[in-house]
Amino acid sequence: MTLRRRDGRVIVVVGSTGSGKSQWVRQQIVKSPRLWVWDVKPEYHTLPGAVVIRNANELLIAAQKKNNQRVLYVVPPTPANFEWWARCAYVAARVKPITIVAEEIADVTTPGKAPLYWGQLVRKVRATGSDLYAITQRPAESDKTAIGNASLFHVGRISRKKDR
User: Fold this and answer.
1) Helix residue ranges, H only, 4-162
2) Rounded alpha-carbon distances, angstroms, from residue 81 to 51, 76, 156
3) 3-state DSSP assignment of residue 133
4) pTM of the predicted protein model
5) Which of 14, 19, 135, 136 could form a Cys-Cys staple with 157, CB 3.0–4.6 A?
6) Residue 71: which H helix or E strand, with range?
7) DSSP 8-state secondary structure symbol assigned to residue 112
8) 99-124 in b/e burial notation, b at 16+ Cβ within 10 A?
9) What is the pLDDT along the chain (164 residues), one digit of tens a residue?
């Protein structure tokens, strides 16, 4: 008899500024031994064992390691940087299950079709046993692939009527 690895989850976290999105996510991930974070502010640097990476080559090297690691990718929030991060995140997830956090996806995605590697990550990450947190203030401005593939929604206060 073979044991089946648990399916991962795609968790979409929405809410206005100051509604506690990042605080809630931090509570969920605090014990995750393997962590991969798109952290452009940065907000997660105080997590125990967190290592900040600012270089694309270093990110790829980290993605291929099986060890428990807590990687924060801190770079300018450009679509190209996000796509590289998403591509490496999928590599990391395929190596060994990992918790993935993408802060403020509206900065680097659009309401249309998901960018190539982000779309692949969102659609395929559950099969790796990994969890993905997609965080946004404005779901109307964010990629619909994450929203359409969500296993769970965590919704904080949403101020704008159009966003509700």
Assistant:
1) 21-29, 56-63, 79-95, 116-124, 144-148
2) 18, 7, 28
3) strand
4) 0.92
5) 19
6) strand 70-73
7) S
8) bbbbbbbbbbbeeeebbebbbbbbee
9) 454 557 899 999 998 888 889 999 999 999 999 999 999 888 898 999 999 999 999 999 999 999 999 999 999 999 999 999 999 999 999 999 999 999 999 999 988 889 999 999 999 999 999 999 999 988 888 888 998 999 999 988 777 666 66
